Amino acid sequence: MLIPVLACFGLAAIALIIVVVAAGSGSDDTADGSDSAESEVGATTEAGDISAEASGEDVYAIGETATSSDLEITVNSVEDPWVPSNEFDTPPAGQRYIGVEMTVVNTADDTAIFSTFAGIEVIDGEGQAWDIAITTSDEPSIDGDVPAWATRKGWVYLTVGEDATDLEMRVKGSFTAEGSVFLLS
Predict the structure, then answer these.
(1) Mean of the per-residue pLDDT values for the chain?
(2) What is the dihedral of CA 66, 68, 71, 76, to 10 degrees?
(3) Which residues, 6 or more positions from 56, have their beta carbon under 8 angstroms from its beta carbon?
(4) Distance CA 113, CA 152 (A)
(5) Dihedral class, residue 178 (left if φ above 0, else alpha if ψ from -120 to 50, else beta)
(6) Of 93, 97, 130, 171, which shows the fewest CB atoms inside 10 Å?
(7) Which ranges of the chain would DSSP assign to H, the alpha helix?
(8) pLDDT greater at residue 12 or residue 62
(9) What radius of gyration do the chain's Cα atoms show?
(10) What distance in Å separates the CA atoms of residue 36 and residue 58, rounded to the nearest whole number?
């Protein structure tokens, strides 16, 4: 009796995984109402890929507001390089930290969870993808819950190459959203 029950749970788990993977590879509505396949600018980007700006995609400047999913996103300021107050917090050799202050406004009727690890991708002018930095800071983080119709303001820190230029940051409102691109330099 126990073996058939476990087999059913196993098949249900496999079906759930297939549904989740299929849903993640689908498309999402963009701000202009059109459907667009999810962009792969993050860790899968290889050197030489076309930047958002070069591809004709809308690119927002510091201080401009863009929309992704149900979030209005504004990059308020960029500190490049960002120097941590903790003397032991240093970027890896050959890299520098950048601090980005952002505001996120949730225009939905439900709470949104904003995660920099799932919702921000950075690429330089050479097509190199860069990571979110894990650092110490006295400033508030942009990560966290954004209640319905509320605003969250905070910082995200990036690790990029010492000589990296033409930095673009894609900010997604949800895991499957295409996102909006901000020029950081």
Answers:
(1) 78
(2) -30
(3) none
(4) 11
(5) alpha
(6) 93
(7) 2-24, 116-119
(8) 62
(9) 19
(10) 13
Tell me the pTM: 0.71
Please give the angle made by the CA atoms of 179, 60 and 160, to the nearest 5 degrees. 75
| pLDDT tens readout for residues 95-138 | 999 999 999 999 999 999 999 999 999 999 999 999 999 998 99
Q: Is the pLDDT of residue 143 over 60?
A: yes
Question: What are the φ and ψ backbone dihedral angles of 124, each rounded to 5 degrees?
Answer: -100, 180
Looking up tokens 């020029």, which residue turns up?
183
Collapsed DSSP state (helix, strand, coil) of residue 155: strand
How far apart, in whole angstroms, are the C-alpha atoms of residue 121 and residue 73? 14
CA–CA gap between residue 71 and residue 125 (Å, rounded): 27
Please give the single-letter amino acid code of residue 5: V
- Which residues on adjacent β-strands are paired with residue 74? 65, 103
Contact 35, 28 (CB under 8 A): yes
CA atoms of 82 and 69, how far apart (whole Å) = 29
- Cβ count within 10 A of residue 49: 16
